[in-house]
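Thread: "does anyone have the structure for this chain?"

Original post by V.I.:
We have the sequence but no experimental structure in hand. Need at least a predicted one for the grant figures.
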Amino acid sequence: MTESVKEQRAAQAARLDRIEQKIDQMSTAIISLARAEEKIATMAEFGKQQGEQILTLINRVDRLEIMVRENAQTVNVINKLFWIVIAGAATAITGMLFIQ
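Reply from O.Q.:
Generated one for you, tokens below.
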């Protein structure tokens, strides 16, 4: 009977050792999953921030396009006025030359 009890205790000890190893492996796996979840959450937050920055840049580009259009119109008006003045001056000079 003593041999049987020793064998049972040894078998139970071996079984408990295997269970402990599996629990250790599971805890390692759970820790790895938690780390991966943290990385995913961090990357999702980073992606959200990047999206917000992109929207900000798009809005800035849109405002710049509006300003460029306005400036282009102003430059066109100035250009036309310049050529009108040049044409008027040329006409005046030509007229003065013919009058003399």
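V.I.: this helps a lot. The two ends are 146 Å apart (CA to CA).
O.Q.: and The helical segments are 2-99.
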